[in-house]
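Reopening this ticket.

The earlier resolution said the output was attached, but the attachment link was broken on my side. Pasting everything inline this time so it's all in one place.
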Amino acid sequence: MLGSEGLQMYAAALWQIGKDDLSLEMVNKAVTISKENIKASTIGLVCKLVYQISGQVSAMTKLLKTPRDILTDSNFSLTAFAIAILDCNGRFPMFLSENFNLFFLHERSPKLYSLLAAGKQLSESANIRSGVQNAELVLRKALHMHPQSTLIRNQLGFHLLSMRGKSSHIAVRCSCRDLDISPSVQGSTSTPAMLGAAAISCSNCGTRNFRITFSTCTNEGVDGVNVILQLQRWFHLEPWNDTAWYLLILNIFQKAREEKYPNHLCRVIKQLVSSVRWNLFFNKGGDNCPYKGFQLLLCISEIYLQSGDYSGSLKHAISASQLHVSDGMLFFAHLQLARCYASQQDLTSLHNEYKKCLQLRTDCEIGWITLGLLEARYFLQGQNNTAAINHELFLNKRDNAQNSWMALLEVVRGQGFIWHEDFQSAEEALVQACSMWPEEGCLHLIHGAICMELARQSSRSEFLYMAKRSLLKAQDIGHSALPMVSLLLAQAEASIDRKKAKWERNLRLEWSAWPAGTYFQVLLILSRV
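Inline output:
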């Protein structure tokens, strides 16, 4: 005759071979045998098997009948909480309020808060943004109570990254506690993943390497952290880990983009994606595979495009367009195809891909910005700037439409006018952009440069005064000096009143605005002349 523990093992084995009814019968016998001295592990197994066999409703019913003192057991509380949290819109709120203190008395309460945040997110399945916000509030509260919890920090960091309008530097400050922890240690696996995701998510800065060019990002992101080295270390420790491999490729791609796609970095990315892992990655399937594969295909397509291999770029972009992803993501596959055809001057195919982008639409602003540039460059819009109109309508539908994106929309229009040598219309577009985003110095720099060109073409002094006003604003705004601002300002002031002291002062300011490495590059160029 089997005892309680033997019956539990037998029940689990029966469930594994598909004999569900017999498995439930055995586990109920185990509960009956140990009725007077029932263990939390026994109840936990019962709930798990009932959930697997009969579903969440039956498991929740069984859970409500358990003695309340068992909830103080740390192992059982995780099982009970995970089952109960799936009943977000049913009996879970009452169950949680009645037993809150019993759940959160032991050392595993950070894990319970993590589950609670996941439940808050699941409960708002119809409104994803609201669910993420509710989960973030739970995690912020938990972080104040458990400031050393890596689990809470990393989960909160990922939520911050997923919130539109949140900067990656906040997520990094939240999660980046101890970079020397080995990723193989349980509980710290997501720390390098957090850093890798944050490094490629910041859309507010042009670069993380100030030696290469200047940055307009006013926040401190991951500039001080060598993320690629951390990801390489993680990948060497766990070479089977697809997430480490995936984030490593994306971060190297980000570095290549910042450095204008140098040959050595393009070769590194091609080697990474030409390995056996590439085929294994796409053959495994899984829920995350289409999204990750989609990203990787677009990245390698861009690498081939920047290397001048248009057929390779087109091949990978077509592969991306054939994956089963959402319309908002598929938009970018056809946008990449449009860019490939534009590089080959295949205007018919370009126009077809452009129309597909308008049909698919996207909720990502940069997609509309890029499509608007294609419109202006290749006269795709006809009489109306269709991508700009769609983008503006999309922003108006959002509750927190950002003026910065509306300003960039005007910059795109201005760029189109410049390509067509209509500098008067370009100046008007930049005036709108500066009024929408007055704290961005680069916009004032562009407006000042356009006014200088108008002054050159028309010999009218009012354009010089307009240029001077905009360039002075660009000089005063920002945490770092922008290159070319003081140089153009010196030229404008010299043209207005020809006072040597003013333009000499601006030339000295211009000298200090450039990175130190630029002087060495100029010296090399002069040595070859």
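Reporter confirms the inline version is readable. The longest helix spans residues 289-307. Confidence is low (pLDDT under 50) at residues 180-189, 203-207.
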